[in-house]
Amino acid sequence: MRPPGVALEPGQVYEANGAMLAVALAAVGADVRQIGAVADDEAAHRDALRRALDADVVVTSGGVSVGPHDLVRRVLEELGVDEVFWGVAVKPGKPISFGVRGETLVFGLPGNPVSSLVGCELFVLPAVRALQGASDPGPAYELGRLAASVRRNANRDEFLRARRTATADGVALEPVQGQESHMIARAAGADALVFAPRGDGELPAGELIRYLRLV
Q: Is the pTM of this model over 0.85?
């Protein structure tokens, strides 16, 4: 991974998640301190996570799945973090982890950018608002109508990137083309996450549905 603005060589990608998560957290009043990208070895993970655990809330991105370089959960366990859950029936964002050490909350988000965004909206931001004393920390769903039909996922609730348009009947929600979790440009063009509950068949155009507004 390379920082934004640096020319990429073959096999490299920009580190987008850190900036995205920092902006989302700062928008709800969090005092954000970024450690930055960490090398794929246990010593580097241990050093970075040990420093991070001084915070009220720790948010990592990447390294929480089951690949050979997914070291975050193992190192967190070594550092005394008690894992509460790992994996949620949500698309995108299935391999999310959450744990605690003392009063510190630790969220492990997936590395794919849209998966990380969804996990932040569903789990991290509500937790931060709750720590701030909010009586209703969210997620803050609103209602709108689908501008096009969408196929439902049989096994997982799905959050679809969409664009909002004000109409005489309220808000119309147009899902963007290309919903894969690595598609950063498509996510950047969206200003809503449409909640499509798991089930069979399709949700038809005109269906009243819940969505989350993206800043």
A: yes
